[in-house]
Design a protein that fits this description.
Elements (H helix, E strand, L loop, with lengths): L6 E5 L3 H12 L3 E5 L3 H20 L7 H8 E3 L3 H5 L4 E4 L5 H14 L5 E4 L19 E6 L8 E5 L9 H10 L3 E5 L7 H17 L5 H15 L5 H8 L1 H15 L7 H8 L17 H25 L20
Parallel strand pairs: 1-2, 1-4, 2-3, 4-5, 5-6, 7-8
Antiparallel strand pairs: 6-7
Helix pairs in contact: 1-2, 1-3, 2-3
């Protein structure tokens, strides 16, 4: 069994694959990328080096990162060459089931028997790919978000056949490169996309139904929900705002918008059991000793103040509706 991942193969040298590869290489992992042709593989490696050099020059990466990536990142002419000695192989090919199955079968045939095999799919269940590999107990989804070299969270999706002992070396590899792995089950959309698509759907419906412009929907999300989310995500927010409050609000929304806004049983049962969150010390999945509440409030104040400062420093996304350079000068003359 692989106990520590030292050698990685990335199958797919596009922007996603090379993003994964460059950050692992910067962390000292030996990485080989490959693609459909040797030329594409080498072009991916060269692009990764250019991106790293640019980020070092901009002060986004420390000095020495380019040298580390140059030393640890190689391009292979074929898939078989890339995976031959790898402890971990990550498939990063287009989101087409048969394409992924074909590539996974080739990986499985060429890799070591103990190699861990991952797929970077964002939507295809493990169960629809697992039988393409010879040892499905060594297979799981390792789902990075785009851009992989900048987004810190990674979903680890386990299937029915996945041996959970593979999780420890994968999580340790991620931690070396300052990624955080979260283990989730083989549910449709996993966690990220089930949440993301629910939010996107409601955002678009609000625009479609004429309740707000696209720009105002984005402004609300950026300055309220999105502003808080990095620090206090939804389940923690339940405890902070009050489980009983959320239950009542679900009821109001359900009355107006239908069953898609009905309160989940886990919430209604907790409220019936007297769990109201931080205000009575009894949260949905944990309790809060009184002495921690002042610490949480102080931490929240520091977090939100820091976020406000960062947003002021960065300004709006260039070209967005909030960017003053996009203002219609005829409607808003100087």
């Amino acid at each position: 069994m692989v106990e520590r991942i030292e050698k990685v193969a990335v199958i797919g040298a596009g922007y996603m694959g090379t993003g994964i590869a460059q950050r692992l290489a910067a962390a000292g992992v030996s990485v080989t990328v490959t693609d459909a042709t040797p030329e594409l593989a080498e072009a991916g490696r060269e692009r990764a080096l250019r991106d790293v050099a640019r980020d070092v020059e901009a002060g986004l990466l420390p000095a020495g990162t380019l040298e580390a990536v140059e030393a640890n990142l190689a391009a292979a002419a074929t898939l078989e060459e890339a995976v031959r000695d790898a402890d971990f192989v990550e498939e990063v090919v287009p989101e087409v089931l048969q394409t992924k199955r074909d590539v996974l079968a080739r990986i499985s045939a060429a890799a070591r028997a103990d190699a861990i095999i991952g797929s970077n799919t964002s939507t295809i269940p493990v169960r629809r790919m697992a039988d393409a590999v010879e040892r499905p107990e060594r297979f799981l989804v390792v789902h990075w978000s785009n851009p992989a070299h900048l987004v810190p969270g990674v979903e680890l999706v386990v299937g029915e056949a996945t041996d959970r002992t593979v999780l420890a070396p994968v999580k340790e590899m991620l931690a070396r490169a300052d990624w955080v792995g979260a283990v989730v089950g083989d549910a449709p959309g996993f966690v990220l996309n089930r949440l993301q698509y629910a939010l996107v759907r409601e955002a678009l419906l609000l625009v479609e139904e004429g309740h707000a412009t696209a720009a105002d929907v984005d402004t609300v999300l950026r300055t309220t929900l999105g502003f808080r989310m990095p620090f206090i995500p939804p389940i923690a927010m339940l405890d902070m705002a009050g489980l009983d409050v959320y239950e009542k609000c679900f009821g109001l929304l359900e009355a107006e918008l239908g069953s898609r806004f009905s309160a989940p049983a886990v919430l209604t049962e907790a409220v019936a059991d007297g769990r109201h969150g931080m205000k009575n010390g009894r949260g949905l999945f944990r309790d809060y000793p009184p002495e921690t509440l002042d610490e949480i409030a102080a931490w929240r104040a520091r977090a939100y103040t820091g976020m406000s400062r960062l947003l002021r420093e960065l300004g709006p996304m260039p070209g967005s509706d909030a960017d003053p350079r996009t203002t219609d000068t005829e409607e808003n003359p100087a």
